[in-house]
Amino acid sequence: MNTPKNHSHTGKIIQATRVVTPGMEPRRARIIIILLAICTALQMTSYGMIFPLFARKIGDFGDGVEVLATSVMAYSLAGVIAAPFMGSLADRFGRRPLLLVSFAAFATAFTGYYLATTSLAFIVVRGLAGALTAGLGPATMGIVADIAPEDERARWIGIVSGGTSAGFIIGPVVGGLLFDKWGYAPPFLMSIGIALITFLIAFFIIPETHTREERRRETLRQKRATRLATGTGTGVSFWASLPHPLLAFSILLFINLSMIFAWFFIDPQLPFYVFDDLGWSTAQFGAAISFYGWATLVGNLTLGRSSDRLGRKPILIIGLVLHSAQYVGLMFTNIYWVIIAAFIIAGLGEALLNPALNAAYLDITPEEHRSRAMGIKGAIGSLGSLLAPALVMVVIRFVPPQSVFLISAALILSTALLVLIALRLPSRAEEGRDLAWEVSQERIMAAQSALHNVTVSASTARKLKSEDR
After folding, report:
1. Mean pLDDT by 10 residues, the chain (469 residues)
2. How far apart are CA 299 and CA 307, in angstroms?
């Protein structure tokens, strides 16, 4: 700000040279994001401990790939239905309630998996878990978007994603070792305990970042926009609230769909393939997932900010190409350490891909609809994890596992080509503009009215001063 100047006829005038926007103190914001990353690490550790055991448990029920695929479909169908609503709830009522509900649901679901005595019970529990945990992604990304600086958004998304990766470092190995030695009880009970600890940490430490005042302001803005739309005939529709440009948003959604589809297309087949065809132990399978987690963690911590510096599009392309390595490795070799190397490359690809993808979503999304957009992203991902197992249940009778891996690899590489050819994201300068301000007729009219009032007031003041003389 420049030094105030005194003018006898106008009072004090202060010339603004910059705009200071309110926000959370940077150090506190960093602490909250790190605590959130710790919570996600614990949650994924608890899940990772029992993830390799799903196929074992279903096998004990006398079932196989079809039932495991059905359980994945139940989880995904519930997520497809619930995720958009959960995202809207996070925008309307805050991030914290959705976060706590999700962590509590994980603890409950793990208990249900352990106590399930039939495949049907296992499927029902997994379906309920898909609905009740659908708010975790929108709430988590909403928290990061609320408090992280825009030019460091991918970096902090990478930190939170690194927490997810850290969970897959420890969980699968520990769970596999405990199962091989003592059976189901130790890994499941430890998993449930860690999930409860995660909930308690979030309950006592993670604050609400989308405050009541901010939600009230957004509600008022939307009501005013709705009144304006009613008067001018331009509706504020669901489409208008979506991120723009819509083509870029659609391609980003397809990237998410293809990634989830590719993984869940092999997911029901993979554990049975490595246990039955390759002869791996549960601990070896857990170790493979752990190496993937290590690569993703290291990549998130060292490469997560790459798209902030080099741009979203090139990092998305590189990440997709590297991510395809796991499917290529499974397709061409049965040598354990070669497959491990492929998993490590794929993990580095995911470490590049996820922060860039999530940051690209947030870059083009209006502030008041961030969690809704992430909810749509989650729903599309759940759609991929719903369609993939359904398709694999059909093709598994006719094609060998290597062909399943080939389809996933081809999908990921085709998506990278689509991004190269068709994705057009706004430049960083254009992202920084408030486009809603530019196109809002209400704001234009308000500015004109304010200027007119100032002119009239100044004219009246001059007349009064002349009459006094």
Report:
1. 50 50 74 92 93 90 89 88 80 87 96 95 95 88 84 82 81 90 94 96 90 67 58 53 81 93 90 90 88 88 86 94 96 94 95 90 77 76 84 83 92 96 74 43 54 60 60
2. 13
Quick one: CA dihedral 135, 349, 416, 318, positive or negative? positive
Closest of 403, 278, 260 to residue 338, by C-alpha? 278
Q: What pLDDT score does 435 carry?
A: 40
Backbone angles phi, psi at 6, to 5 degrees: -95, 130
Joined tokens for residue 447 = 């500015």
Peptide bond into 243 cis (omega under 30): no
Q: How far apart are CA 322 and CA 287, in angstroms?
A: 20
| Chain centroid to CA 272 | 29
Cβ-in-10-Å burial (0-12, 13-18, 19+) of 49 comes to: buried
CA dist 150 and 420 (Å) reads: 24
What pLDDT sits at residue 301? 81
- pTM, two decimals, is 0.69
Q: What is the rounded distance in angstroms from the CA atom of residue 231 to the CA atom of residue 443?
A: 14
| Residue bearing tokens 């029902």 | 124
Which is it for the CA torsion 104, 106, 111, 117, positive or negative? positive
Count Cα atoms within 13 angstroms, Cβ side, for 3.
2
DSSP H or E stretch at residue 275: none
Enumerate domains of the chain plus CATH numbers: 30-208+244-426 (1.20.1250.20)
Pairwise CA distance, residues 90 & 23, whole Å: 19
DSSP 125-181: HHHHHHHHTTTHHHHHHHHHHHHS-GGGHHHHHHHHHHHHHHHHHHHHHHHHHHHHH
Residues 206, 40 contacting (CB under 8 angstroms) = no
> Would you state the structure tokens that stand for residue 136, as one six-digit string?
């975790």
202 contacts 99 by C-beta, under 8 angstroms: yes
Amino acid type, 182: W
Q: What is the pLDDT of residue 438?
A: 41
- Token pair for residue 443? 């704001």
